[in-house]
C-alpha cells in the first residue's frame, strides 16, 4: 500500500473518531499491534512527540536540509487539507442522494395498499363462482365416469370373446409374439372367471396357445430358422412358463452330437489326407492342409465355417446363459481335435510354411470364437497347443536330419573296385558332409520362417523357438555321436602304445565306414560347427526363456570336443581293425608250419603277397578319405640293381664273420651290446589324419605283431633263412607305403633279431642266393601284374 493511501486512511480514522485517547488511540494501537510499536519521532503515530522529532531533525539535517524539510512539510500540509476537504464534499453528496431516494419510496408506497385490497376482493368472487359450477355439475360428472368404466369393461369382455379368433389370426400370420402378449394379458381374467363366464373362451384360447407352443418348439429345433428367431421362440416359451430346462438339455445334446460328428468326419478327412501325403507333390500340400482343417457337416455337402458355429454358440448363450460351462467344454474339445490333427501331421515330413498355414487358419478361428466365448480362454489354450506343435516340429526335423545322415553313411560299399573312377567311400563321405552342413542350414532357414512370421501367436513364442533350435542342435550332434558309435558296432580301441590288440567284431563292422566316420567327425568339428554357430548368432540370437541357471542351450565348444574325441577314437578303431585282420593272417602263417623241420627256402612265401594285398586295400581306402601329408619324403629308387648291390656288399662284409655258429653267436651278442648305446627311437607317434600316418601306424602295429609271433616259435636254419628272405623282400614295398623309413628298418631288424634269437642254428642265406630269390619274386610279380592288366 502506497504512503498516500495510508495517510488518507489515518486521516479518515482521526476525523470520525470522537475520543482520540480511547477510540482513536485504541484503533491505531490495534491496527499497529501486528507491526512493531511506532517510535515517538513518527509523525503519523498517536505517540508523536514534537520536541523529540525536532531534536532529531536538528541532529540529522543542516540548515539547508531543515529549510527543504520545511518546504516539503508545508506542501504536504496543504495537500492533506485539500484531500480532507474533498472527502467531506463526497460524503455530503452521498447523504443528499440517500435522502432523495427515501423520499421517492415513501411517495410510491402510499397508493399500493388500496390496490391490494381490490385484488383480494376479485379473487374471493372467482372462488365463489367456481364452487357454484362444481356443485351444479357434480352428478353429471359421476354419471359420465360410470359410463366410461362400463365402456372399458365391455371392451375387455369383447376382447376376451374375440381372443380365440385373434390367436388364430396370429398363428396364421406367425405373429407368435402378439399371440403370447394377448394370452398373457387375458390370463388374469381367465384365472378369475375362466371356470364360469368365459369357460369356452378359455378352452379355445388354451388350444390355440398350445398350438403356438408347438410351433415355437418346432422353430427352435429347425436348423433352417435364423438364430434370432429361435432365440425369440425360447423367450416366448419362457413367458408362457414352459419348462425350458428339458428343451435346453435336448438342444445341448444336439449341439454336442453335431460337433462330435464334425470332429469324427474331420478326423477321417485328415487321416485320408495323411495317407495320401507321401504320394503328393509339394504343390498339393497346401490343398491337403485346407482339406485337413476344413469343417464339414455330417453329410459332407456343406462347408461349415467357424463363423456359423460362433453364431450358434452366441445364440445358445443368449437363449441359455447358464449353459456357458458346457459350451466351453465343447469348443475346447473341438479345437483340441483340430490341433491334434496338426500334431499327427507334424510327425510326417513337412515344411514350416505348411505348419504356419495350418496354425494361421486355426488362430483366425480362435480369434473369431474368442469374441463370442471369451470365457473359454481359447487364445491361452492355442498358445499352449502351438507351443507343443512347434517344439515337436523342431524335434522331428532334427530326427529326420539324423536319419538322412545315417542313410548317407550306410549307402557306402565295403570295397570299391580297383581302377574305378567312382569311389563309394568318397561318395559316402561327401554325401554325408553335404547332408550335415546343407541339411543344418536348410533347417535354420525353415526355423527362420517361424521367427519372421507376423502371427501374434508365434511372436509370443519367439524366445522359446530360439532356445528350442539351439537345444535341438545340441541334442542332434550328441545323438549323431551316439549313432556313429552304433554304426561302428561299439568296438573296443586298443592303446596305440600297447602291442596287445583287443577283440573287435570285424565281420560286423565295415572298416571303410569307420574311416569315413573319423573324417566326418573332423569335418563336423572344424567346418560344420563354426558355420552353424555363425548362422545361429546371426538369426537365432537372444532366447533366454529357459533361464540363465540352466546355462546356454547350444555349447559349440562341447560339441567340438565330443567330435574331436570321436574322430580320434574312430581313427584308432580303424587302425586296430585293420591291424587285427592282418594279425590273423600273420598268426596263421607262423602257427601252421613246423619250423623245426622247415625246408630250405625256394622262394618268397605267399603270405608276403597276402600282406601286401591287405596293405594295398588299406591304401585304397585311405586315399579315398584322408588327404596326403604336407611333407613328402624322397623315395628310394625301384631299380633292383642298386638295392641288390648294396645288399650284396653288406652280405660280403659279413661273410667273413659267419663262418661258423660260434662266430655268429658272438656277433649276435655284440649287436645286443650295441643296442644299449644306440639312441632310442620313437616308433609309435600320435596318429595324424593323413594317408601316410595311418598306413605307417598300421604297418608298425603289424611288424610289432610279427615280432611277437616270431618270438613264440623256434626255428631251424631253413626256417630262419625263410624269415630272412621274406623280411628282405618286404623292405622296399613297405617303404613305399610309409613316410618313416628309419622306423620300418628298425622294426624289420627287430623281427630278424627275434628270429635270430629263436633259431637253433642262425646262419643266414648267402647274399647271391638272397638276391637271386628276391629278383625272381620281383620278376614274377611284374608278369602277374601285366597279365592281370591285359585281362
Automatic annotation (TrEMBL):
Q: Which Pfam families match?
A: VPS51_Exo84_N
Cellular component per GO? cytosol; EARP complex; GARP complex; membrane
Return the annotated region ranges for Disordered.
18-43, 633-659
- Keywords in UniProt for this one? Coiled coil, Golgi apparatus, Lipid transport, Protein transport, Transport
Per the record's keyword annotation, is Coiled coil included, yes or no? yes
Q: Which residues form a coiled coil?
A: 63-129
Q: Which GO terms describe its biological process?
A: endocytic recycling; Golgi organization; Golgi vesicle transport; lipid transport; lysosomal transport; protein transport; retrograde transport, endosome to Golgi
Q: Give the Low complexity compositional bias ranges.
A: 639-649
InterPro entries (UniProt xref)? Vps51
- On whether Metal-binding is a keyword of this UniProt record, the answer is no
**Primary localisation category:** Golgi
- Locations listed in the record: Golgi apparatus, trans-Golgi network
What is the role of this chain?
A: Acts as component of the GARP complex that is involved in retrograde transport from early and late endosomes to the trans-Golgi network (TGN).
Q: Report the family membership.
A: Belongs to the VPS51 family.
**Subunit:** Component of the Golgi-associated retrograde protein (GARP) complex.
This one is known as Vacuolar protein sorting-associated protein 51 homolog
The protein's organism comes out as Musa troglodytarum
